[in-house]
Every structure is written in structure tokens, then in C-alpha cells.
Design a protein that fits this description.
- It is a single chain.
- Helix content is 0%, strand content 48%.
- Strand 9 and strand 10 form a beta hairpin.
- The N and C termini lie far apart (44 Å).
- It has a single domain, classed as Immunoglobulin-like (Sandwich).
- With 183 residues, the protein is mostly beta strands.
């Protein structure tokens, strides 16, 4: 039986040690990766407590976390964000929703850096929206930056179609995402 969503809990599980599923040549076990808290819970909300997000969508709000990577030696900071894909191409949130993920304010060894999706050397930006499976790197002046540390802000905004927020019974939505540091 399907129930509309009224209680919204985004269990955003960004696994700090998700490297175990990668082939050995892609793993970098000497580096540490952290992203604020491993779970974000938006709590129970009714339809009228949700924010209007435009285009017939509602959101329980936006959360911002700090992504930090620290390695014992200098290397390119190449990362991938993995998760289930929604119908609109974004990360899936519950049965009918999606999650927008935006990365910004990147720094390598404390110095400002631009962000670039891997495979698109022409498009660098101070802020990028991520899609499931995309990899990204820190760049400066068009060149991939090497460093021991990488930090960036991550903005997370879950979205639900308005029709999914009409509740007759308590229900929850979640997204499970994995952030990976690649060599």
C-alpha cells in the first residue's frame, strides 16, 4: 500500500569509508574524508510546513555541510557522489522526490579553487550541481589542483512534488548517497 508523504526524514548517509566497494587501484585508504554529520533528519513536517520550491515542488528546507578531505601527501582531489537516480536525473528522494546537491566554496590547501566535472575541461565554476555518478575535481587556472587538503561546502535540498505531500498517513522519504575519493 502506498501512502503520501507527510513526515520527511532525509537519511542522507554519506559514507566516510565507502571506498571498500572500489577496485584496489581506485582506493585511497590513507586519506580521510568527512562530511559534517552522516545523517540529516528534517523531522516530521506537514504539507503546510514545507517551503514552496517552484514548479509545483515543495522542500523541507536546505542544509549546508562542510566536506573535508585530508591526505598525507599531495594528490589531485577527485571525488564522486553516488546514489539512486530519480526520474528527473537528480538523486532520488523517497518514491517520487529528488535531492538537489550543490558544491561550492572549494579550497585546496587553504587556497580558493574552481570545480570541474571530470571529462569537461572547458567548464569550471565556483559552484556546481551534482548528478548521480558524476565525478568532479578541484582546478585553478584550468589545471587540476594537487594538494593535501580539500574543503568545500555542500548544499542539500530535497524536493517533493506537491501531490506527494498530501498526507493521509505518516510516511517518510529518504535518500542514500555515497561520497568517494578517487585516485
Amino acid at each position: 500500500m502506498k501512502y503520501p508523504f507527510s513526515a520527511l526524514a532525509l537519511a542522507l548517509l554519506l559514507c566516510q569509508n565507502a571506498l571498500a566497494s572500489l577496485p584496489p587501484m581506485l582506493q585511497d585508504s590513507q586519506c580521510s574524508l568527512s562530511l559534517g554529520m552522516p545523517e540529516i533528519n528534517f523531522g516530521n513536517q506537514t504539507r503546510y510546513q514545507l517551503d514552496e520550491a517552484g514548479a509545483g515542488q515543495l522542500s523541507p528546507g536546505t542544509r549546508e555541510l562542510t566536506l573535508a578531505v585530508a591526505c598525507p601527501y599531495s594528490q589531485a582531489m577527485k571525488l564522486a557522489l553516488r546514489g539512486d537516480r530519480a526520474q528527473n536525473g537528480a538523486f532520488r528522494y523517497g518514491e517520487r522526490g529528488s535531492v538537489k546537491i550543490r558544491l561550492f566554496n572549494a579550497r585546496v590547501d587553504g587556497q580558493p579553487a574552481e570545480l570541474m566535472r571530470s571529462g569537461n575541461a572547458q567548464a569550471t565554476s565556483s559552484s556546481i550541481a551534482l548528478q548521480p555518478g558524476e565525478t568532479f575535481v578541484a582546478v585553478r587556472g584550468g589545471a587540476i589542483q594537487q594538494g593535501k587538503t580539500f574543503t568545500a561546502q555542500v548544499e542539500i535540498t530535497p524536493l517533493l512534488p506537491e501531490s506527494a505531500a498530501r498526507a493521509t498517513q505518516l510516511s517518510s522519504s529518504e535518500a542514500r548517497l555515497t561520497l568517494e575519493l578517487l585516485r
